[in-house]
Amino acid sequence: MTGAAPMTPCKPINCKDFEVRAILDGRKTQARRILKKQAALDALTVFGPSMLLQPGCADLLPYAPGDLLWVREKWKNVASGEVKNGYGEVRYGVAYEADNSTVWRSQVCKIWDLTNQPSSGPLQFKTGPWKPSIHMPKFKSRITLEVTDVRVQRLQDISEEDAKAEGVDAVTMDDVPRQAAMSRRADFAGIWNSIHGPDAWDRNDWVAAYTFRRVE
Question: CATH top-level class for 10-72+141-214?
């Protein structure tokens, strides 16, 4: 009798709202993340990017093929129901900013008595602010990805096809007249600068290009 197969590692990955929308739409199958220790990575010009794919480099390359990633995004707790004279039914859920959707718990919480309850807390119907993705617990994540491929490259090595896989909106490229010099790659450069700073594209950092598929 053989033992149970080891569980596949499940790690968090932070995603911006536009990334989440592109994943949900099926347009985004790649994500690039800046690697740590850029100066040390210049050795890649001698040894080649495959050096980072070797065991022992997990501190530089956190995700590997086969890893499952749970997506962290902007969220908040919400409640819906009706309570009269201290009694009623309430359903709790999680709202997601990216597409303004809500996932409700299947069970309903019955409220029998609100006497002497505090002025704030889980039984109160208050709309709170959106919480940063970094504060999302795993059990409230709604998207899981499986890493299928990892490449290490300079940022500007991204191809037109890769930029499309990054989720650059096809509508802006195919349905709207553009200048001849514009491309998905150029649009991706603009998006990258909006996230990492105005000179981020020109820095041409070493990045990990993760290809993934959505599991749930």
Answer: mainly beta
